[in-house]
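User: I'm putting together notes for a lab meeting next week and I want to include a structural view of one of the chains we've been expressing. I don't have a solved structure, so I'd like a prediction I can at least talk through. The sequence is below, exactly as it appears in our construct file.
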Amino acid sequence: MAIKRNKIHQCVVAALATSAALLTGCATQSSNSTAQITNSYYGTLEPFAQENLYFVLTDRFVDGDPNNNYPEQGGDENYTFNRPLKGPDGKEANVGYLGGDLLGVYQHADYIKDLGFTSVWVTPIVENPDEAFTGGEKIHYGEMFKDGGKTGYHGYWGVNFFVEDEHLVSENFKFKDFTAGMKSKGLKTVLDIVANHGSPSYTMPQDQPMYGEIYDKDGKLIADHQNLHPTELNYDNPLHTFFYKKPDLAQLSDTNADNPAVLDYFVEAYLQWIDQGAEAFRIDTIRHMPHHFWKKFADRIREHHPNFFMFGESFVYEADFIAQHTLPENGKVSVLDFPGQAAITSVFGKPKEGSQLKATKIC
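Assistant: Thanks for the context. Below is the predicted structure for the 363-residue chain, given as structure tokens.
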């Protein structure tokens, strides 16, 4: 019995080691190595791989400053704070802001540190629209992939990528104060970034302020979907050239990776946040933009900050597909290991089936 347990343990270790290798690329070491590792396999030599990462959806964590909740924002119909979705048996979801902010995260830094974490990954901090979205399909309790009635509480509907969203910062506690405070507690800040899309941009009964719009660091409007379906965009209009003329995710604007101005915009914006204390990036929806974009983006970021660590969300369960992002010619961006996650949860995440799958699926 002891031998069987040891065999299973070895298989588990091997499976987890394989998952770790996929996250940041893999390598082998020969017996001639100066590192004196003989015929060994290892996941990565990337220093950031030693970090223990705690993920926070900032608005859903702790309300450290009630003054930035803005309960009157958006008016009577399209208000942004506390938009409940009623479910059966008294259950409830919510698609509005609920008050969590960067101050609330900082106030609980010791709690996170005591759990054994060394870094905190926060959702995007950039400015999002100030109303609930009136287009798309209306969201109801228990539903997914519908945006009608939602707000940008999650941070992924960027409008101005140089400006912090007012719900997340306080008068005397901006992002740079947050990163400095977290660092003083022994915690690094990983910033979630988006370049693939802006906000929902069409299907509104009437065009809403900020939706489908992108502003530069001076507050100048540089792109506007103008509530038009992507196929109706006209590249003779300079406000349309920031976007592709095809739909992608829901009603989100699809940024044009072939337009050099798009690359310039996001490089400048995200360099700003590194200068204010971001120590790594998590890249949202990385697979929705071509490899050539991320290669140029990563190279330009690392020109200023050599070896800056980035990992992406390529939401695919095929290892060969997501591993392409880790190649140097594609930007050398690490990835979240969805294939490994699926394999692990298929064994350990199902109480009735897990014990039966241990020997057959791992070994």
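A couple of points you could mention at the meeting. The first helix runs from residue 2 to 24. The radius of gyration is 22 Å.

User: Perfect, that's what I needed.
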